[in-house]
Specification:
Elements lengths: L14 H23 L3 E12 L20 E4 L12 E4 L10 E12 L5 E7 L2 H4 L3 H14 L4 E6 L18 E6 L8 E5 L7 E3 L10 E3 H12 L1 H4 L12 H13 L6
Parallel strand pairs: 5-6
Antiparallel strand pairs: 1-4, 2-3, 4-5, 6-7, 7-8, 9-10
Helix pairs in contact: 1-4
């Protein structure tokens, strides 16, 4: 059964589903591209590990120092108190708190490599919350992104998350719920931006390689439909609840009407 939404299903942005969706989409893109680029290229699934330790980050990028409970006080007669005198000692007992420790977050991404040289020709990123929300994770990703944009490597950046700050692009006032950025190394600083909203279909876009090569196509609507079906999201998602993150009032009304029309929510 397909998703009731024409493009991105906002219910898959929920923390309970996003990591699985991210991983499935990484594999689906790799599997779809491989037949189109062989034998000159290979595509590898790699992992980046973030260690988040900032205790001052209020956006969930780190483990916070716990605040101790009110100290438990105990009164007791001290053996050192002279006989005949009355005295009590107030002793604060320890309580369990949380301390900041490195939190490892693993994120998969794709690299298209030239078989002969093993050189990375194109990096394909699907953004996760750790990339977009403020904190160490965003800083780390932006450094890598800037490094790619300053190199001869092409970049494909897929953002299927409505929340948090968008990745920076210059001289553009385009606002959208979702976007795909295709940056060819030989055309920088110009890049192709596929901007789309909740009510739009997912885009079909090319993956840049060397200038002389035929570019493989990522049919995102087809891949997404396959992921939704194989994962059984149609019966795992509770469409009677509101999506997380929440929708705007206008989109919420539209989504409720859509779900009622498809029989996934009672009138």
């Amino acid at each position: 059964m397909p998703s009731p939404f024409p493009g991105m299903d906002p219910y898959l942005e929920h923390p309970d589903f996003w990591q699985e969706t991210h991983n499935r989409l990484i594999v689906a893109i790799a599997d779809s591209i491989m037949p189109q680029i062989r034998p000159k290229y290979e595509i590898a699934i790699d992992k980046r590990i973030y260690e988040i330790t900032d205790p001052n980050d209020s956006n969930g990028d780190s483990l916070l120092v716990g605040i101790p409970d009110v100290a438990i006080k105990r009164q007791s007669n001290s053996p050192d108190v002279p006989t005949g005198s009355v005295a009590t000692l107030t002793i604060a007992l320890p309580t369990t708190v949380k301390v900041p420790i490195p939190e490892k977050i693993k994120q998969a991404y794709l690299e298209v490599r030239e078989m002969a040289t093993k050189q990375v020709v194109t990096a394909i990123e699907i953004l996760s919350p750790v990339n977009k929300r403020s904190g160490e994770g965003r800083i780390t990703y932006l450094k890598k992104r800037q490094s790619i944009l300053g190199s001869l490597t092409n970049l494909v950046e897929i953002d299927l998350l409505r929340s948090w700050e968008l990745m920076p692009v210059l001289n553009s006032s385009i606002q959208s719920d979702y976007r795909v950025l295709v940056s060819r190394s030989d055309r920088r600083p110009f890049a192709e931006l596929y901007a789309f909203n909740l009510r739009d279909s997912l885009p079909i876009f090319p993956v840049p390689l060397r200038e002389e090569d035929v570019e493989p196509i990522v049919n995102l609507p087809e891949l997404f439909a396959g992921i939704y079906d194989r994962a059984g999201y149609d019966y795992r998602i509770d469409y009677d609840r509101e999506p997380v993150p929440s929708l705007s009032e206008e989109n919420l009304v539209w989504a409720q009407e859509l779900l009622q029309e498809t029989g996934l929510r009672d009138n």
